[in-house]
Amino acid sequence: MRAEATGLRRGLPAAAGTVWHVGVGRQRAERAARSPTVAAADALAVAGIGGGLDPALRPGDIVVATELRADPNTDGGPAALAPPTLLVAALRRRGLTVRTGAVVSTGRLVTGAGRERLAGTGALVADLESAWLLADRGQRPAACVRVVADTGPLLRPGTLGQVRVALRALPLVAGALAEWAAATTVRRVLLASPRSFCAGVERAIAIVERALELHGPPVYVRKQIVHNTHVVAELTARGAVFVDDVDEVPEGAVTVFSAHGVAPAVRAAATTRRLSTIDATCPLVAKVHSEARRGAQHGANILLIGHAGHEETDGTLGEAPDRIRLVESVDDARRVEVDDPRRVSYLVQTTLAVDDVSEIVAVLRARFPDLAAPPSDDICYATTNRQRALHEVAADADVVLVVGSANSSNSRRLVEVAERAGAAAYLVDDAAGVDLRWLAGARTVGVTAGASAPPALVDEVVGALRGLGPQAVHERSDTVEDVRFTLPKEVRL
After folding, report:
1. Is 144 annotated as a binding residue?
2. Annotation marks residue 312 as catalytic
3. Which terminus of the chain is more exposed, N or C, with fewer CB under 10 A?
4. pTM of whole model > 0.90?
5. According to the annotation, is 391 in a ligand binding site?
6. Is 358 annotated as a binding-site member?
7. CATH topology of domain 188-196+381-477
8. What pLDDT digit, counting tens, does each position of 362-390 carry?
9. Marked catalytic residue, from 4, 291, 312, 460
């Protein structure tokens, strides 16, 4: 309808594209689909109002189509649309209530039993044009967004008010579609490998899963077992209870120490409470703890390069609080003082950026020529591998998406690595966190994930990018990881 086109134009930036009022019904839709204007378009979006079929829908709710159907079906069956994840996220950021599902196009308005029949097929919205407007879209990016107007019998007293509610949402829909259209330039996705889970993370998660199998819920976990919201949510659903400290755990309960390690004082507190503890500390973090104890026993001044407040750093500092000093930056390295400059060693948080550590160590070595390095590199193999692999990808990418949670140190370092390589880089928890505005005009997108992010989340991000049109996906492998860590005796089956 003309009112739909007017609402869309109101919200569409002048340079974003053209709103074409094609008219109502199948014949007009098919005529428009064959027109030179549509044939010349790089991307196609159908938008307007529709009739809600699901009783849970309300006027003003948005339905983004994942499938288009024609009723009666004379056109070869349902047609799937690429995943609209990123468009849905853009709509929700505007405060709209959004559902995804099937949109069915009918030859005439349906009421009563006709609506009930269509609702029975699982379709969410009925309209009069979408299936035919997008029938010949080919490989072009395409989207279908319908705002629910009426949700029951037509031509009742409240129908006009419902239509007005729906029309008011169209300018917001247009703004989201403009962002979607600007991002349909993406044509290539580069996957960095290795990415996602490392051996230490897999081991930690497996320990909690085995503990739940052996003891049943609840199993208590001090801090997040690994720094990822999805992992924590999944384990919580299975019966894990995450606490900030052991004094929150009932006496005698099964308790897991997270992969980041704990200070001796925490172990002592757990013993006092007679907790049945299982240690999920990553073996590479445990190595740093061992080095800290050894250095302290030999009277060294230990400089720990790391981030204040991170669980791993707190645990290492707790091994010898009177002998270890934290160095967070180059500035800290220039200022730190020790009581004997000839007996100085350094340790490193395992998840830091290699380049950052090198700069700090260079300053420390200039100040303390006898500075002793760890017996072997403290930055773990997984952190190094992921940073090196991403550096190669980022050099060829316009934008890099790093999958990982905000409290994941190694994931944040990956963002910094990509930025140093010249790409715009963003940290996202999952596909819904990708902002279409980041991708405007980009042709190549790099994707990786921190060592604590599940591989399935990367698959979801790549799938979401396909909603912007057909793309070539290439994996660039820097090295193959075959490290495996054994489980502690408490959970071996």
Report:
1. no
2. yes
3. C
4. yes
5. no
6. no
7. Cobalt-precorrin-4 Transmethylase; domain 1 (3.40.1010)
8. 999 999 999 999 988 898 999 999 999 99
9. 312
